[in-house]
Structure formats: C-alpha cells, structure tokens
Automatic annotation (TrEMBL):
Gene that encodes the chain: garB
Protein name per Swiss-Prot or TrEMBL: Putative immunity protein
Membrane-spanning ranges: 6-23, 30-52
Keyword line: Membrane, Transmembrane, Transmembrane helix
Amino acid sequence: MNYNLLSITIAFIFSIHLILKNVNKKNKNWLIIIFLVSCMLIFLFGIVGILLRWF
C-alpha cells in the first residue's frame, strides 16, 4: 500500500467536497474555480510523479 498516493487522494476528494459545497452557495466565485483547477493539477502531477517512480 502506497500511503503517499492514499493521502493525496484523500486530500483531493476532501478539497473537491469543500469546493462543491461552496460553489452551491455562490455560483460565480472565480477563486474557488481557480483553487479547484490548481488542486486538480497538483493531484495529476502527484500521480504522474508516483507512477514515474514505480516504472
């Protein structure tokens, strides 16, 4: 079990949950959208880095 991958996944899911909860209150909050995009990019780069270490 890779705890690095697990912790990144949990943090990503939790951040999406918080963002979606806030987006429902304010439909056009660009800071939340930018935060979501940056979280997705960090998550993708983390996955790519972990996969590159494995291979």
